[in-house]
Specification:
Blueprint lengths: L15 H18 L3 H7 L4 H10 L17 H14 L1 H21 L2 H13 L4 E4 L15 E5 L2 E12 L6 E8 L2 E8 L5 E5 L11 E11 L12 H35 L1 E2 L2 E2 L4 H29 L5 H25 L11 H13 L4 H13 L6
Parallel strand pairs: 1-4
Antiparallel strand pairs: 2-3, 3-7, 4-5, 6-7, 8-9
Bound molecules: 3-thiaglutaryl-CoA and flavin-adenine dinucleotide.
The site of 3-thiaglutaryl-CoA has 25 residues, from helix 5, helix 7 and helix 11.
Length: about 375
Amino acid sequence: MTAPLDLLDLDPSLTDEERQIRDVVRQLVDDRVRPHVADWYEQGQVPARELAREFGKLGLLGMHLTGYGCAGASAVAYGLACQELEAGDSGLRSLVSVQGSLAMYAIWRYGSEEQKQRWLPSMATGEAIGCFGLTEPDHGSDPASMTTRARRDGDDWVLTGAKMWITNAPIADVAVIWARTDEGVRGFAVPMDTPGVTAREIRRKMSLRASVTGEIALDDVRLPADARLPEASGLKAPLSCLTEARYGIVWGAVGAARDCLETTLAYAGTRTQFGRPLAGFQLTQAKLADMAVELVKGQLLALHLGRLADAHRLRPDQVSVGKLNNVREALAIARQCRTILGANGVSGEYPIMRHANNLESVLTYEGTSEIHQLVVGQRLTGLSAFA
Ligand code: TGC
Ligand code: FAD
């Protein structure tokens, strides 16, 4: 954390290795992302495959997984990497989250040895891109109602249905697809070149424009028996993958907020109105102080959850606390920072509106803020609002 925003001196509570990983990713973002990201965002085009290979070289893809070419880093180190990536752009953290925490994690946790050998090493280097198909056009927050079907035909499986809003689908080599069978929800590793699979890019997004999003149509897609992830049984399997990715977002959101606040602090120090810098006005200082306090609270929360994860004690509802708070506060920080930049706040020359727009997606995906409120509500009351 760059002074003066590290109000609580959190930096020394990281290990040397954690700081080193964070600094390497920060440098990568400075060199490789910051000079181009405004253009990628404006054009709605991002060199995702190229970036994936560069992220792979640094060991960022599936970095918290072990074996199969994965780095085996701690949860805190992975979180710090997410924080730095999202300080660049939420779309880049998304690329890493979907690859490592959703697609790779699903295969690593629930796949056969053969599936792991086939996919994980090339996904870890970024040669192969994965996506994760849970959401459907008519079923987002409630994946238990999914209508994508997988039926047996001899030894084969035949998949029919549609998945919507799938990050990286148009550029993916493999999709982890969740489908209903006669025995309940099951997962499948589906090569994207299988006949009957088509992916169409979703255009005109006003958020997460430096990220590729698509729709997957599954039209009688015939798969061999060994395409099914043998250890995945029931909705719990995809939901456990979400817990992994949501954890990364807890950290990532703080990165986006930090970038907004750093930008704003610098701006308010140099922009003069009424004969003095904006930073000298009491109202501006109140905004800056409130935002810096929320930022450091978010960082503390992320670090606490990370230490719990490294001690194998992190529960899904605790991740919901983190995702709910940190994304909500990051969005509030981005909007408040925008006011301090005045008209420049809406300009793509500054990162703030881009972060704010991105955070609208982050608030919705991986469980909307309302879903996380209800998960926390269930923890508090013992009553499920979903049943
Ligand atoms: P429910 O009955 O509560 O649970 C079914 C089983 O799953 C277990 N479980 C979890 N396990 C691990 N992690 C979690 N987060 C879990 N949540 C639930 C649960 O204990 C139960 O186990 P068992 O043994 O009793 O069978 O299920 P429900 O149908 O009532 O739904 C609960 C609800 C609403 C919380 C869940 O459906 C949900 O989380 N909905 C939100 C859907 C969502 O987040 N979709 C995200 C799609 S992927 C994405 O957005 C990628 S964005 C790109 C990027 O990350 O960058
Ligand atoms: P809905 O579920 O229709 O919800 C609409 C509104 O109703 C929300 O405010 C919600 O909180 C509220 N609501 C719903 N149920 C309740 C309730 N019980 N109580 C109170 N309020 C409720 N999905 C994937 O599977 N893979 C991906 O890679 C992926 N990437 C994405 C990338 C982007 C850019 C975006 C925007 C989405 C992505 N998603 C992905 C989809 C995302 O997970 C869903 O959008 C999200 O789960 C919400 O579903 P929905 O959009 O259908 O909204």
